[in-house]
Amino acid sequence: MDNLLVVKDLTKNFGGLAAVSEVSFEVRRGEILGLIGPNGAGKTTLFNLISGLLASDRGSITLEGEELSKKPPYKRSAMGVGRTFQVVRPFDMTVLENVMVPIFAHYKTAKEARQKAHEILEMVKISHLAEKMPANLTLAQRKRIEVARALATKPKLLLLDEVLAGLNPSEVAENLPLIRQVRDSGVTILFIEHLMDAMMAISERVLVMDQGALIACGTPDEVTSDQCVITAYLGEEAPEC
Ligand SMILES: Nc1ncnc2c1ncn2[C@@H]1O[C@H](COP(=O)(O)OP(=O)(O)OP(=O)(O)O)[C@@H](O)[C@H]1O
């Protein structure tokens, strides 16, 4: 199996709180890997560690065998780590311009950048909104802008942080296939989502975190029948996990 990202013994403490504790896993090239866990489990902290917004206390993160831990976020981005954020805050400029901003760093000429931006907007199905201002769009559409902006950095690995949160059921049904579409374009995906049904429908494997630790990893069927996972979601102590 070809591993794109390998995380080993990754640890981050905030004072006395172990937000991420000795976490180890790999992301296989080309897969859709879900990341779930109750509130405060450490999921976003893990994304911040992988993308370089936080420094780890211990452990390693390698992308295609190259250590990322000491590299600043912009270097990780150039190496192929892209991400979206839970809170979507597009710039106060058109949808197309929002995608052009990150793209400029990755393409030589304005013409090339503009062409690529249009291709990305097509892929996430908002090319018809290219000249609109994000403030006038729905949350579902703004979430697509966020994905488009992340794709503009040419990621090999895309970290998606709750791209379905806050959407109504029909918007979820519309936006969910986007994740598979992006993967099918050659991008490996690690994504955080609280919507369990959607997550299980689209993930090939799922990681489960609780209280900073990785408590399960497997296919959707394996993790949903795992007693440690059930216990974590019920908020009970499970000393054997
Ligand atoms: N910068 C910080 N300083 C101190 N504590 C923090 C910081 N960031 C996160 N935490 C704490 O670390 C723990 C993990 O938080 P994190 O946001 O990673 O969880 P999460 O699984 O993403 O939760 P949610 O699903 O609610 O977004 C929480 O207890 C949180 O309060």
Automatic annotation (TrEMBL):
Gene Ontology biological process: D-alanine transmembrane transport; L-alanine transport; L-isoleucine import across plasma membrane; L-valine import across plasma membrane
Pfam short name (any one): BCA_ABC_TP_C
Fetch the SMART domains from UniProt. AAA (SM00382)
- The organism's place on the tree of life at top rank: Bacteria
Matching SUPFAM superfamilies? P-loop containing nucleoside triphosphate hydrolases (SSF52540)
Gene3D superfamilies for the chain: P-loop containing nucleotide triphosphate hydrolases (3.40.50.300)
The AAA+ ATPase domain is annotated at 29-213
Which GO terms fall under molecular function for this chain's record?
ATP binding; ATP hydrolysis activity; L-isoleucine transmembrane transporter activity; L-phenylalanine transmembrane transporter activity; L-valine transmembrane transporter activity
Keywords of the record: ATP-binding, Nucleotide-binding, Transport
A cellular-component GO term for this protein: plasma membrane
Task: Please report the name of this protein according to its UniProt entry.
Answer: ABC transporter ATP-binding protein
